């Protein structure tokens, strides 16, 4: 089975199974705070092409004015947003992006242009040679990233100089060795983390 077929089957089944829970989440988001259900943001995809990612909105509508990093118990996060983020459920609408072909179930997490500008040329070429994904080894390794940033004196510097290079190294290693079996292993690990909350 090819990677694209795996993505289509996985995303299609996921959207069918999550249709009713997704509608309930959408309703709760609308009741909890003013603004749209979905958060759309420009990210950099395969080959350096920009696309707009889908997420359930977890912050106030004006949140990006204060920056693009989430640091600790960020005051911009809504009550429902905190619950969704803790369980990674805000990422589920990206199944739409997988069906559209801009993302994959497994692949390097897509960054905003601001931080892609910090990619070293050699790693940039490797990481952007594959479709970005909903999950990957680096996102599992850094799932407590917001807490790490909160402990830093300068969160953005910590992200650019410490976290981002480590993420890129893991993403490049994935891109070089990606196969259906590695994807299945990452999906299994991600589901385990999701179910444990």
TrEMBL record:
GO terms for molecular function: phosphotransferase activity, for other substituted phosphate groups. Residues 3-195 form the Bacterial sugar transferase domain. It comes from the Bacteria. This is Sugar transferase. Keywords: Transferase. The keyword Cell division does not apply. Belongs to the bacterial sugar transferase family. Signal peptide: none annotated. It holds the Pfam family Bac_transf. It comes from Ideonella livida.
């Amino acid at each position: 089975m090819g990677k694209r077929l795996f993505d289509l089957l996985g995303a299609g089944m996921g959207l069918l199974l999550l249709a009713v829970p997704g509608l309930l989440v959408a309703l709760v988001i609308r009741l909890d705070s003013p603004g749209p259900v979905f958060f759309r943001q420009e990210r950099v995809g395969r080959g350096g092409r920009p696309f707009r990612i889908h997420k359930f909105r977890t912050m106030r509508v004006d949140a990006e004015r204060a920056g693009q990093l989430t640091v600790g118990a960020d005051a911009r996060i809504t009550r429902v947003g905190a619950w969704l983020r803790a369980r990674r459920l805000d990422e589920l609408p990206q199944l739409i992006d997988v069906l559209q072909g801009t993302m994959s179930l497994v692949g390097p997490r897509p960054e905003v242009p601001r931080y892609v500008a910090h990619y070293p040329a050699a790693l940039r070429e490797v990481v952007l040679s594959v479709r970005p994904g909903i999950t990957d080894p680096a996102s599992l390794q850094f799932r407590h990233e917001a807490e790490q940033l909160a402990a830093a004196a300068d969160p953005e510097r910590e992200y650019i100089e410490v976290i981002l290079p480590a993420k890129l190294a893991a993403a490049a290693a994935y891109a070089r060795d990606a196969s259906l079996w590695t994807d299945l292993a990452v999906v299994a690990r991600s589901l385990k983390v999701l179910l444990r909350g």
